[in-house]
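sry for the spam today, last one i promise. struct tokens for design, 164 residues
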């Protein structure tokens, strides 16, 4: 019997990553299948990190599909000269109900959902997210900072310091 490339947990993480990008379980499943197909055609024997490579395939596949459908919007970003250093890269100090999270996720762009998923759910560092997405670390820090400010503004009475 052949060894599995990924554990069941890693498959589920990859599926959740697809959902974070697409926002739709059916589209996420199709995205995951197409990405695994590309990974298997390429081969994983010489890859240092098959999971990281799979996530990059998923992300690129998603962007390619959106470009093809003309539904991918690129937000122009101007790198600021002052990089904002956050005390925490995570969103642990913002509390919200399940319904609020669902509503919020539907209102977010795929890029924002990806940042939240990778940071808050998977616990990736900004450096790891930078490697995965090919986006400069400073750019991600700025985007995370703005996203965190927006969430705090949207949920002003729901921070962990106030409830704990």
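last one done:
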């Amino acid at each position: 019997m052949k060894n599995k490339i990924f554990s069941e947990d890693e498959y589920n993480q990859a599926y959740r990553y697809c959902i974070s990008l697409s926002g739709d379980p059916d589209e996420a499943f199709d995205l995951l299948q197409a990405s695994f197909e590309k990974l298997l055609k390429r081969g994983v024997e010489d890859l240092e990190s098959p999971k990281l490579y799979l996530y990059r395939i998923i992300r690129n596949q998603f962007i390619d599909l959106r470009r093809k459908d003309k539904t991918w919007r690129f937000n122009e970003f101007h790198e600021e000269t002052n990089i904002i250093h956050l005390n925490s890269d995570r969103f642990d100090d913002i509390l919200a109900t399940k319904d609020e999270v669902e509503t919020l996720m539907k209102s977010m762009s795929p890029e924002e959902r990806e940042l939240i998923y990778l940071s808050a759910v998977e616990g990736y560092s900004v450096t790891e997210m930078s490697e995965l997405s090919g986006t400069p670390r400073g750019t991600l820090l700025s985007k995370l900072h703005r996203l965190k400010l927006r969430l705090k503004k949207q949920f002003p009475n729901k921070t962990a310091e106030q409830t704990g």
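The two ends are 50 Å apart (CA to CA). ok im logging off now
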